[in-house]
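Task: fold both queries, return tokens.
Query 1:
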Amino acid sequence: MMNDYTAILTKVRAMRSKLLSKEEIQNNHSLKSLEDIYQVLQRTEGYDRAARDTDITELTPRSIIPIIHNGVYYTFLKLYRFANLEQRKVLKLYGIKYETDFIKKVINNILAKKDSNIYFEGFTDYLEKSRHFDIDRIESATTIDEVIDALNGTIYAEFFEENRSSFQEIPIDSNVLNVKFDQFIAMHVWKRARHIFSEKELKQFKKYYGSFADLINIESIYRLKFIYEMSNEEIKNYILPPSRQLDEVTIEELLQANNQLSFERLLRSMGYAEVIVNDKRTNDLRIEESEFLEGLLKFLVRSCRESMLPILEYLEDKQREASLLAKTTEKIGWNNVKPAEKELV
């Protein structure tokens, strides 16, 4: 029997069948050069369209990686255009992760005094028509103030106005601002979710996004406590309300941890052992949430198959595919640099 999700789920299943697995990327011995990577992109969902629309004069990591990122955007837009109006509401909410990536890259380019006009027309058209971005002003901006002015009318205007003075400081404390921005986005998504998901979808989404918010809080507490050495009262200003495991008691326990070992023990007791990575080179603790959230989402999708969750799961898998392709491209590009040229990097 046909339902509201039959058409889009059928399409996603067809698109999923073309995803490259981790093994196909990392253990593919035929991927030895940038030409090999480019050929893979030319025959893989999303990247093929991005490659056709990009005029490349030389194959370098700097020319190939934007194609990979744009391939993810093309895939998102393909599903967005196919979706019905209700499904588009969910995809718009999910697409915020691409919008924030866009904003961060524009700001980073301006800080580095680089050209900010780095995005393909299809995605910027979507931002302009569906998300109220003033693309002309953004792409012509040469200062952070001009970017902030151009974001007026978007959901991000409030955050940037409130933090305008922080963006004018020299040097900009980008790490703290990134934490605050991620928290602003997480709160927006959390509030909007209850208005766009069905009751069944919302129940599963809360489990997933609650864990996601937990991990943002855990990483924020760890970085601000052990790297920036902020006081506990200062750190509390950066804690997100929505959570799954983190209540006021557990947050206070994390804040009171005297060292990284105590912090790690607390995470294990909360069921987050899988996200802990001990970096032997720096003797630091890292929070790696990707595989943990991937497994959690797959588990939740199994109990809610006739919904938007399988579509979001596919887009997450597409992002992971792109990240692996980008890392492989960088590795191959670096390995092909002559030793004398490496000394100049």
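Query 1 returned. Query 2:
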Amino acid sequence: MLKKTILTSAIAIAVSSPAAFAEQRTAPVRDNGFSYTYGQLAYDRWDLDDGQDIDAITGEGAFALDEHLFLRGGLNFYDGDYRYGDLDGNQIYGGLGFHTPLQRGLDLVGSADIIYDDHDFDPGGSDDELGYELRAGVRHATTDKLELSGGLTYQDIYDGDLGVYGQGLVKVTPVVDLGARVIVGDDRDTFGVFGRYNF
């Protein structure tokens, strides 16, 4: 019940955000100066509803193609437990992202990724699947040193899952950031920390 309440509230906030911020617009903004070219290393903890508790290490990156489009990609290795035994595997993903300013310090951001998952479970064998993830949300320069992001995510690998995501990013130096991220979904809850280098 709590997860459904959080999910419903977050969806309402995400949908109403552009209208709420529209009143604060002044002059048109061409670029908010967010970096969409970076590499990062992350640790995530996945808690999945079918009894899986998984630790994942992920290398990720993005590359800006122009003022609106960027490429995304990553590779993760994961290991954990499921209801019958041990589970380990990897995922590789790649896709395209889009961003545009809504107002000063606020970007609308969307992305679409193709994901390939391959894992082994003991006892039982192995499995693999080709799926995808779609995201839509906002990225906000909350202070000079802090960025906050959030929105909706839909992932379909083995089963479909609708959720909300949130991320906080602290600027340690002009090119180095530290961050934390969370996803709350119907069938998955994840929490992670990461370090990012902006090119």
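Both queries returned. Flag for query 2: Residues 2-22 form the longest helix (21 residues).
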